[in-house]
Amino acid sequence: MAEHESEVAQVHQSTDNVEKVATTDVAVSDVVDEKAPFATPDGEEPNEEEKRTLKRVAEHLPASAWLVAVIELSERFTYYGTQGIFQNYIQRPLDGSEGRGALGMGHQGATGLSTFFQFWCYVTPILGAVIADQYLGKYKTIAVFCGVYIVGLLILLLTALPPALEHGSGLGGFIVAIIVIGLGTGGIKSNVAPLIADQYTRKKMAIQTKPNGERVILDPAVTVQRIYMIFYGCINVGSLSLLATPYMERDIGFWSAFLLCLCMFLVGTGALVLGRKYYVVRPPQGQVITDAFRCMGLMIKHFNMDAAKPTWQAENGYNSVSRWDDHFVDEVKRAIIACKVFAFYPIYWVVYNQFSNNFVTQAGQMEAHGIPNDLMQNFDPISIIVFLPILELAIYPVMRKLHIPFKPITRIAVGFCVASLAMVYAAIVQHLIYAAGPCYDSPLCDASIIDGVATGNKVHIAIQTPAYVLIGLSEIFASVSGLEYAYTKAPPSMKSFVQSMYLLTNAFGSAIGEALTPVAYDPAILWMFVGLAVASFLAGIIFFGCFYKLNAKEEELNALDADEYGPDQHGVAPATQVGK
């Protein structure tokens, strides 16, 4: 944690008449300006007047957080680089009659298998979370599951080689590979998101005077928001692997794309191992998840959220002996609030997942002009990479300076509504495809075959771009805020588990997508897009109506972490560096 060394400058008169004493390990000025005798010294918590009037700013990320970001970048490079070309790999036949392919299972078969893979990748984080929170800790769990991931990638690569495909090993090898890769990505995903935020240890607001004399509040909530914006930016830089893998798939073969992804993943694993001495890690907490479920059982049994507290048990004549205290029960209650918020996310993920399956098929139904149909997916991460810094460095700071609240619940609701616009646009594009020849509502029919390859209807593939851009913009609001909410509302002892609950909503979204597979055919898919647009918009409105009151409790809920750690100003949990 960087030390904050500055003198207290001219400040506004405070209405709080209690002068706080500097008692922290942060360098604090011992002298307060005579003209502002009640101003809070640097390093101390702001008073209520200062909270209302001073600008809140984020701190710089520690170096270890950037190392974690590199690990996530390489994992997402691998995930999207492989998963993004699965649709063609599964859908198209090996003989190349519809362009390069491998398994020849058709549109519905491809959508079904790729959707199962997405579902599996977001169920397995529960296993990774339990192992991390109760047994190994986040760092060791990530290291173990990196090994599992590498095994899955090797199976995928070897069974995609031309001799293996020609001898019928493709389908069996693919199924085994996605199961093993799903285990690997699940163990990593549930732990890497909380691990990056763990590198930042301040838990309470603090006053800081800038060199220009401006007094600001160092706000942990704003810093965590920045951490997850950067984290999500790294995810999307990694997903730009789809700029390369579609061309490698088309011009060399799927095996070459899978090899590239394997090599990149080895780079990330190397960063994990070589940087092991620098990570701040929290030790596993034993039977914390088991205890949490026992607490919830008591809450349900007595129809009272406080029923698991030892004080409540004693006051009501119960003699049960608990392994936890009242504060732990408050933590569990906070985790339940977070999980209630996540209940609407499956609808969002159904919409989001369209960009990696049905949007790819839609792109293949248009005139490509030399552009691989699965290359269009890159407009999603590109839009995120463009809009993230604009929001983080321009729009959000201005809103904070003007004291315009844009808290997580509001951002999530906006994300749902923007996603609905993406589906509206996708439906319009699908209508344009069906209105154009030569195949109209039966794209890739025999009339479109040129030189033995079926080509799309006479609609330019670039018209699909805004759909990906809108999906990307929705992610900044809904997905980034979900990661942030999962971390800030989770108790310190259950960060990975609550993160896995958030990721599980993606699995439910994939399950709904799997149920919609029977209507993923022409021309019914147009109405599926319309239905998803309506569902996402209504979900966003209902979500905000249900949870908008939580915006007012944001600081109160976030403050529980600081209370956990007793007298320490920064609320730093007992933590170690892995190599020490």
From TrEMBL:
GO terms for cellular component: plasma membrane. It is a multi-pass membrane protein. Residues 21-30 have a biased composition (Low complexity). Keywords: Membrane, Transmembrane, Transmembrane helix, Transport. One of its GO terms (molecular function) is dipeptide transmembrane transporter activity. The keyword Transcription regulation does not apply. It is found in: Membrane. It comes from the Eukaryota. The chain crosses the membrane at residues 142-165, 171-197, 227-248, 254-274, 332-351, 382-399, 411-434, 467-488, 500-519, 525-548. Pfam families: PTR2 (PF00854). InterPro entries: MFS_trans_sf (IPR036259), POT_fam (IPR000109). Residues 1-49 are annotated as: Disordered. Belongs to the major facilitator superfamily. Proton-dependent oligopeptide transporter (POT/PTR) (TC 2.A.17) family. This is Major facilitator superfamily (MFS) profile domain-containing protein. It comes from Talaromyces rugulosus (Penicillium rugulosum). The lineage of its organism: Eukaryota, Fungi, Dikarya, Ascomycota, Pezizomycotina.
